[in-house]
UniProtKB/TrEMBL annotation:
This is UTRA domain-containing protein. InterPro entries: Chorismate_lyase_/UTRA_dom_sf. It comes from Kribbella albertanoniae. The lineage of its organism: Bacteria, Bacillati, Actinomycetota, Actinomycetes, Propionibacteriales.
Length: 198
């Protein structure tokens, strides 16, 4: 039987903004929002399984990225895991899938799975591609029951639900650059945010 993980407290807006603040300041990044949220070092993060493919854009991809349906995309899929230092066990935490127009990343480190995980995560990867003026990260989230594959990958209890989160990075001219989906157990995630009322 699967064991329900301890809660993790996540302020996604703060974590994402923090990466870009550090990048603008020229700081050397040594972690990712995922590693911080799970309280581990970057060396304790791994991907299993991980696949990179070139695929035509679906109708949803085309809508989100503002491209023609069938445009060649780089699609990255992985299960993001934490390595338990005491036991060496690989513990799955989240399922990720992302899409970006392939011609934007062809011949760059973005297309090399062996370089993962990258300090700073996707934000740092996009920055390295020259997207230093990204304007916003749009986020949509729903809660839902996992499908069988998701439940299997995440080793979830039958009754537990997942957060299904889609994030789109948008450039300074309003162009959508990269869209990603994250599936994570809802029971172990407490979402936090702060609203400045001053």
């Amino acid at each position: 039987m699967a064991v329900r993980p301890a809660p993790r407290f996540v302020d996604e807006a703060e974590a994402t903004a923090g990466v870009f603040k550090a990048l603008r300041a020229g700081e050397k990044l040594t972690t990712t929002p995922f590693a911080e949220a799970h309280g581990v070092e970057l060396v304790d993060v791994t991907y299993d399984p991980i696949t990179y493919t070139r695929e035509p854009a679906s109708a949803e991809d085309a809508r989100r990225l503002g491209v023609e349906r069938g445009t060649r995309l780089l699609r990255r899929r992985w299960v993001q895991c934490v390595i338990d230092r005491e036991t060496g066990k690989v513990i799955p935490k989240e399922i990720h899938a992302s899409a970006i127009v392939h011609k934007l990343v062809a011949g760059t480190a973005f297309v090399k799975p062996e370089l993962q995980p990258v300090a700073g995560g996707t934000g740092a990867e996009l920055w390295a591609l020259g997207y230093t003026g990204l304007r916003e990260a749009r986020t949509e989230r729903i809660g839902r029951p996992p499908n069988g594959t998701e439940r299997n990958y995440l080793q979830m209890e039958t009754v537990d639900w997942v957060w299904d989160t889609v994030r789109t990075y948008v450039d300074e001219d309003g162009t959508a650059i990269e869209v990603s989906r994250t599936i994570a157990p809802m029971a172990s995630t407490v979402l936090r945010s702060r609203i400045d009322l001053s």
